[in-house]
Design brief:
Blueprint lengths: L1 E5 L2 H18 L4 E4 L6 H14 L7 E4 L1 E3 L10 H8 L11 E2 L8 H14 L5 E4 L21 E4 L2 H7 L12 E4 L2 H5 L3 E6 L5 H9 L17 E6 L8 H6 L1 E2 L3
Length: about 250
Amino acid sequence: MKVLLVEGYQEMSKVAAQLFAQEVRSKADLVLGLATGGTPVGMYAELIRMHQEEGLDFSQATSFNLDEYVGLSSEHPQSYRMYMQENFFGQVNIDPRKTHIPRGDVQDLGAECSRYEQSIVAAGGIDIQVLGIGNNGHIGFNEPGSAPDTRTRVVQLTMSTIEANARYFEAVDEVPTQAISMGIQTIMSAKKIVLLASGVAKAEAVRNMLEGEVTPAVPASLLRSHPDVTVVVDEQAASQLSPATIGGAVTTRK
Ligand SMILES: N[C@@H]1[C@@H](O)[C@H](O)[C@@H](COP(=O)(O)O)O[C@@H]1O
């Protein structure tokens, strides 16, 4: 794992956008793996700026999102489809037919999960996947205990995740309790992974991911066996790391 230490949220977002833009420029028909949550909003904003000011072209790209809430339609304001539309898709030239997000409102959720996995394979697999990290070390919606061989499936959200995501809903009991999420193996099949972490609330999860045991109890730690992961972490999120990890990190500081 390569650790890139940056000053704060803004720099993290710029560095992440540059990593993505580099891939988009080198392969027009890139397959992007996308994430939601507060963390990647700044990266999407920077990619939109690059599209508008530098002509960064997404017209041939395909995207697959990590997850979607069960029970919310694509038009629901808190659905991840809506999030992506507002924060990214609606402002760049990606072909809407090539943007994929699981449907959380279908009757046969199992069939939807298999269909989703198959469409990732049919697209040739994910070239570059962006990830955030949950306070409990989850990636996508793979909560602690998720097995390394999991593929896209319906998952039960933990109380800590429901509480963390309640800020987007009117009340905690409106947060869905289940989601469709790419599995650990789906994520590990991406050729390149960029994980972003910002703020002190992520410091413990970041330490466990980088310095703790490699264990399904901390799903992000499983990424340590992937050959091409870059963790972009800001000073607050890195605040619990050991001097050895900090010393081995690449810093953008002059
Ligand atoms: N499913 C998403 C994850 O993909 C995200 O990484 C995590 C952290 O979110 P945030 O970036 O808002 O801290 O929240 C959600 O649970």
